[in-house]
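Reproducibility note. Readers wishing to regenerate the assembly model reported in the main text can use the exact inputs given here. Chain order matters: entities are listed in the order in which they were concatenated for prediction.
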Amino acid sequence: MLIRVEIPIDAPGIDALLRRSFGGEGEARLVHDLREDGMLTLGVVATDDEGQVIGYAAFSPVAVDGEERQWVGMAPVAVDENYRGQGIARQLVYEGLDSLNEFGYAAVVTLGEPELYGRLGFERAALYDLRCRWPDTENAFQVHRLADEAFDGVSGLVEYHEHFNRL
Ligand SMILES: CC(C)(COP(=O)(O)OP(=O)(O)OC[C@H]1O[C@@H](n2cnc3c(N)ncnc32)[C@H](O)[C@@H]1OP(=O)(O)O)[C@@H](O)C(=O)NCCC(=O)NCCS
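Running the prediction on these inputs yields the following structure tokens for the assembly.
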């Protein structure tokens, strides 16, 4: 198994993984559209020994309170059913966070299981007065600080790219 940054040849494998992981085409189409529009900040893949994509995490820019602040949203995250429970999601997320940190990004937000992402170092975004536009997400919307000063004077609505509104 290999964890690495996405390259163009991975696109069909990522598409297929997202379709079977989420049982529909929404997430696959989202990643396709973000990539087409140059809005995929980073994609991290896990591949098996044959080079097939078995895991994926995507990162794209978000605005905070209407401003670009070098923050990104992590979504979607998926691991092939046959490979779950082996720490692959953890490795994908950590690889993504490490790379974004090196590139100088300030923070990463995500929407999902607090139990899962809490184990990966995310905290409730509401603790920092940060929210997203989807209702009843106070516990599910989470943030991971990369830069020490990321939260200084920053709060309010975190907005993903408009492609997320079609999910
Ligand atoms: C969610 C998903 C990505 C997890 O992948 P995975 O490779 O099995 O996760 P990992 O093995 O790296 O687990 C990391 C940690 O989170 C925990 N965890 C994994 N899935 C979890 C879940 N659904 N709920 C709560 N905790 C979870 C694990 O126990 C592990 O913690 P530990 O190391 O302290 O034991 C995978 O189940 C999946 O693709 N699901 C379908 C798509 C999906 O729902 N994506 C998430 C959208 S928010």
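We highlight two features of this model. The chain has one domain: 2-166. The chain is about 25% helix and 30% strand.
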